[in-house]
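User: Reviewer 2 asked us to show a designed sequence for the structure in our supplementary figure. I'm pasting the structure tokens here. Could you produce the per-position amino acids so we can include them in the response letter?
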């Protein structure tokens, strides 16, 4: 069994997020010890792992609920599969869009870095030019 602190750290979630996911039914009811503290089982962690991945992919709470239901339902209809596949396709498209956006930002960053490096090099070269003091050339 795993304490809420350990689970929160492992999945980089707040205690409130874990409680919220349980409250709205994305996580099953978590077992409590005699003092009322949550104790997460390995099965709970497996569900939480799927949940966290879906949320990081951009799935809404409703979409996450639908996909998690696919993993938990023994008899799934073709319509349920179709709905799940549609959600996953949407998440894949959104991930492609976000990836393209990140590539654009990465290119912008590289361009600005190169510009600043070039300006820095010019400034260094200016600092190394000999200067005349009392008519005599000396380095800085």
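Assistant: Here is a per-position design you can include in the supplement:
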């Amino acid at each position: 069994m795993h304490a809420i602190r350990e689970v929160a750290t492992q999945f980089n979630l707040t205690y409130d997020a874990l409680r919220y996911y349980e409250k709205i039914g994305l996580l099953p009811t978590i077992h409590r010890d005699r003092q009322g503290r949550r104790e997460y089982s390995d099965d709970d962690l497996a569900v939480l792992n799927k949940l966290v991945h879906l949320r990081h992919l951009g799935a809404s709470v409703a979409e996450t609920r639908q996909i998690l239901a696919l993993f938990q339902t023994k008899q799934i209809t073709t319509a349920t599969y179709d709905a799940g596949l549609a959600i996953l396709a949407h998440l894949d498209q959104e991930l492609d869009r976000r990836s393209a956006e990140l590539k654009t930002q990465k290119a912008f960053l590289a361009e600005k870095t190169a510009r600043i490096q070039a300006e820095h090099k010019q400034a260094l070269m200016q600092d190394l030019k000999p200067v005349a003091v009392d008519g005599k050339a000396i380095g800085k």
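For the response letter, you might also mention the following. The chain has a mean pLDDT of 88. Residues 45 and 90 are 25 Å apart (CA to CA).
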